[in-house]
Design brief:
With about 110 residues, the chain is an all-beta fold. Helices cover about 0% and strands about 50% of the residues. The chain has strands spanning about 5, 10-15, 20-25, 35-40, 45-50, 55-60, 65-70, 75-80, 90-95, 110-114. The strands form two sheets. A six-stranded mixed sheet has the order 2-10-9-4-5-6, with no helix packed on it. A hairpin with a 6-residue loop joins strand 4 (about 35-40) and strand 5. The radius of gyration is 13 Å and the shape is globular.
């Protein structure tokens, strides 16, 4: 059974930083592209960052230069370092494969206060 468990969210002031973690099990982690997605209230879920099996990252324009995605295949874990956070980054953050699987985890809430 595939499980992707997100952690590391919280409440932070604008300009602050958070580091999210995504622990995976039940998949051959090292060969898949993993993405961080987010869903803000009233909005569709969007892909904000992804990293290929060869550790090549891609970012949405809205987070480029502020977020950094990385992976540790030995730990089956993907990270999202988020710096210079803005109120518009407030959302529930999820990890999933890219393209995404149908099942989603519970996500981790990120709230950025102004």
């Amino acid at each position: 059974q595939v499980q992707l468990v997100e952690s590391g969210g919280g409440l932070v002031q604008a300009g602050g930083s958070l580091r999210l973690s995504c622990a995976a099990s039940g998949i051959i982690f090292s060969v898949v592209t993993i993405g961080w997605y987010r869903q803000a209230p009233g909005k569709q879920r969007e892909l904000v960052a992804s990293i290929t099996s060869r550790a090549s990252p891609n970012y949405a324009n809205s987070v480029k230069g502020r977020f950094t995605i990385s992976r540790d295949n030995a730990k089956n874990t993907v990270y999202l370092q988020m710096n210079s956070l803005k109120p518009e980054d407030t959302a529930v953050y999820y990890c999933n494969t890219v393209p995404n699987r149908a099942d989603w985890g519970q996500g981790t809430q990120v709230t950025v206060s102004s």
